[in-house]
Amino acid sequence: MKLVKALTAALLLAIAACGACLAAEQAVNPAAPSPDMQLMPGDALYIRIPAEPALSGEYKVAENGKIYFPVLETADLGSISVIACKDMKTGKTRGCTVAEAEAMIKAKLGNYFVDATVVVELMSFSVRAANTIAIYGQLQSPGAYSHFEGMRLLDAFIKAGSISPDADLKNVRLLRDDLTIAIDASGVINGTDMAQNLVLQPRDYIIVPSREPIQKVKVLVLGQVSRVGSFYLPEGATVLDALAAAGGAQGRAGVGKSYIIRMVDNRPTAVPVDIKALISRLDLEQNRELLNNDVLFVPESSGINLNEIMSNLSMFNLLTTTYDDAIE
Q1: Residue 209 and residue 138 in contact, taking contact as beta carbons nearer than 8 Å
Q2: How many CB atoms are closer than 10 A to CB 148?
Q3: Is the distance from CB of 240 to CB of 292 less than 8 angstroms?
Q4: What angle do CA 133, 136, 138 make, to 5 degrees?
Q5: How far apart are CA 104 and CA 83, in angstroms?
Q6: What is the pLDDT of residues 14-62, one digit of tens each?
Q7: pTM
Q8: What pLDDT sits at residue 53?
Q9: The listed CATH number (3.30.1950, 3.40.50, 2.60.120, 2.60.40) that belongs to domain 44-124
Q10: What architecture is the 216-315 domain classified under in CATH?
Q11: Tens digit of each residue's pLDDT (9 = 90 or more) over 242-258
């Protein structure tokens, strides 16, 4: 009898322990993704295709937003882009949902099999922009990193690895929504001025510029920025590098409707750039590389006559040789 009671007690303890383990596991595991979650690079999908088991398996969304299928004798699905769906309300391109990806694969599969059954499951998903910060520039491992409560500037530097000797720590820029915050991070790094060790928010974008670039491109920044003028930037500099050099946007800046204006085949050409999407959603596709003598134009939030602006730039030869005296 004592043995039975002892075994019963041990069994109850084991059940209780398992229940606690399960509760702990549920507490640390993230919540199931919403059916409306938009896919993005880095997400992992399991695709089940009963008609052709060789096509079934785990697929990862590549950096260009595509899923690549193996080429078989029975079918060649090629690739599909899961970040090229259109929003019915706005008409803009967005990431596809799992259901939309499933429908696209099914449509392709119908060209090869009568039974075009497809089941797509989201196995794991990469960090979303709403929960990340990004730090780029003269660093060993620039990129986007998960944000955590109480995260500070120094934490971002630690995640980005060692700092290049060419980094201009005195002129670090923090882009937050429509604000540009100038930071002297040198004291943060050496521990002498921790007042600059700002608390970071999700979607913050940090730029660590180069102090003395060896190779340079000259970019003219015009419009609603703190310092209008021409700036020498490192070769490979991007839109955000130019915006940071110009002190960021100011006033009623329409950063979502900015433009890169450059000469193509001796004609001025405007390339739209949505800086707002770049900063708020980490849409890195908008952070375009700038070429020598490019013009970055940040308009007012009200409407603009782009043709008139390009005509004026051509009239003053600002699309072929930008002026050297930046306005202080």
Answers
A1: yes
A2: 11
A3: no
A4: 145
A5: 12
A6: 434 444 343 333 333 344 567 788 888 888 999 999 999 999 999 998 8
A7: 0.45
A8: 92
A9: 3.30.1950
A10: Roll (3.10)
A11: 888 888 887 777 788 88
Buried/exposed code over 149-171 (b: 16+ C-beta within 10 A; e: otherwise): eebebbbbbebbeebeeebbbeb
Where do the structural domains in the chain lie, given as residue ranges?
A: 44-124, 130-208, 216-315
Pairing of strands 295-298, 216-223: parallel
What is d(CA 180, CA 255) in angstroms, rounded to the nearest whole number?
Answer: 12
Positive or negative: CA dihedral 156, 160, 162, 168: negative
Token readout for 285 is: 């596709």
| Across 118-128, average pLDDT | 84
Domains 44-124 and 216-315 share a fold: no
Tally: H helices and E strands in the chain: 7, 17
Beta bridge partners of 144: 134
| Domain spanning 130-208: CATH superfamily | Outer membrane lipoprotein wza domain like (3.10.560.10)
Q: Which of 150, 253, 238 is nearest to 202 (CA)?
A: 150
Could you give the CA distance from residue 90 to residue 96 in angstroms, rounded to a whole number?
Answer: 15
Which stretches of the chain are DSSP H helices?
Answer: 2-28, 98-109, 153-159, 186-190, 239-245, 275-281, 306-315
CB neighbours of 273 closer than 8 A, spacing ≥ 6? 239, 258, 259, 260, 286, 288, 296
Q: Provide CB contacts within 8 A for 120, sequence distance 6+.
A: 45, 46, 47, 48, 98, 99, 101, 102, 105
Contact (Cβ atoms closer than 8 angstroms) between residue 300 and residue 252: yes
Quote the tokens at residue 71: 């080429």
* Phi, psi (degrees; rounded to nearest 5) at 225: -130, 165
Q: Is the predicted pLDDT of residue 13 greater than 70, yes or no?
A: no
Report the alpha-carbon distance of residue 44 to residue 62 in Å, rounded.
10
At 242, is the secondary structure helix, strand, or coil? helix
